[in-house]
Amino acid sequence: MPSPLPLENGRLTETQKAAYWQDGYLFPIEVMPAAEARRMRAELEALEAEWLDRDLPLPLSTYKRVNAHCVMPLAHRIGSDPRILDVVEGILGPDIMIYAVEFFIKEPNTRHKVSMHQDLTYWGLGAIDGLVTAWLSLSPATPASGCMDFVRGSHKNAILPHEDTFAEDNLLSRGQEVKVEVDAADKIPIEIHPGQISLHHGLTIHGSGPNTTDDRRIAAVIRYCTPDVTQQVADVDFALLARGQDRFGHFSSFPAPTRNFTSEALAQYDEIRAAQAKAMMSGAQKQGSLYN
Questions:
Q1: Phi and psi torsions of 48, nearest 5°
Q2: Strand, helix or coil at 253?
Q3: Residue among 57, 113, 50, 101 nearest 77 (CA)
Q4: Which residues on adjacent β-strands are paired with residue 111?
Q5: How many Cβ atoms sit within 10 Å of the Cβ of residue 285?
Q6: What is the DSSP letter of 210?
Q7: Are 31 and 84 in contact (CB under 8 A)?
Q8: N or C terminus of the chain with fewer C-beta within 10 Å?
């Protein structure tokens, strides 16, 4: 198991910042005790048990998988955690917006995978440096459970051509896969454990294999961006200021949720989902719902 990187008062060192920009990722970084992360998992699973059979407008899996921070206080609390923001500030600077929070879950002994791709391919934000993903482990992410694989230095490419597969075993919205050959030897397994995060650039090529263990692989995935980032495809986009100032006003804001799945939050969720789907599904040969 890799040892966590030593932080300085909870923040990245200059050497660690340089490693991120050189490799396109950084891990493992411990941001909270493992026991706290396990309590977050228990809170999420209690929410699943309570709301699975409720009469929600969309499947519960959709709300967990897309913009959970709009309707679930737990997701917003994780995205706003000052310990994670302290680390992310070393990459993005003092002004940080939450672009998305999602719970990414692979059930035990399933064949679901994530094909090798670049995150920024379909978000309509362009090939930018001002977005970083923090991937918080709530259960062990190991090669056996389907942890992410990164390709070192691949963020130095532009957005590469991708192919939509819409494969049933692919957890991505379009089953998108980068149209370059990625040798197995170039894949770096990103093993992290509860309470640890990894960081990766929006252009870093990455994917993950199936979960072959008897436990769920659960992560809270937070997409952070700087306020100067702009939506280039959709008419409007949404983000919440987490730290610092927004001097640009490129994103529409909305109230953070105070209770799970309120009617007001669900209506806001539909507006955000529809707007972002215009970018996510732009150019797709097969139109469908966003992660439904």
A1: -60, -45
A2: coil
A3: 101
A4: none
A5: 7
A6: -
A7: yes
A8: N
Which homologous superfamily does the CATH classification assign to the domain defined by 14-280?
Answer: q2cbj1_9rhob like domain (2.60.120.620)
What is the C-alpha separation between 38 and 33, in angstroms, rounded? Answer: 9
15: phi then psi, degrees, rounded to nearest 5? -65, -40
Residue in the structure block whose two tokens are 């992660």: 291
Contacts of 21 (CB under 8 A, 6+ apart): none
> How many whole angstroms separate alpha carbon 178 and alpha carbon 9?
38
C-alpha–C-alpha distance, residues 237 and 231, integer Å: 6
- The CA distance from 210 to 147, in Å, is 9
Can you give the pTM of this predicted structure? Answer: 0.91
166: which 2 tokens? Answer: 């819409």
**Residue among 235, 265, 241 at smallest CA distance from 253:** 241
204, 114 contact by CB (below 8 A): no
The string of pLDDT tens digits covering residues 171-229 is: 554 446 565 667 788 899 999 999 999 999 999 999 999 999 999 999 999 999 999 99
Tell me the β-bridge partners of 240: 98
Neighbours of 161 (CB within 10 A): 8
CB atoms within 10 A of CB 264: 13
- Amino acid symbol at 263: S
User: 194 with 140: CB under 8 angstroms?
Assistant: yes
Provide the greatest CA pair distance for the chain: 50
Instruction: Tell which phi-psi region holds residue 282, choosing left (phi > 0), alpha (psi between -120 and 50) or beta.
Output: beta
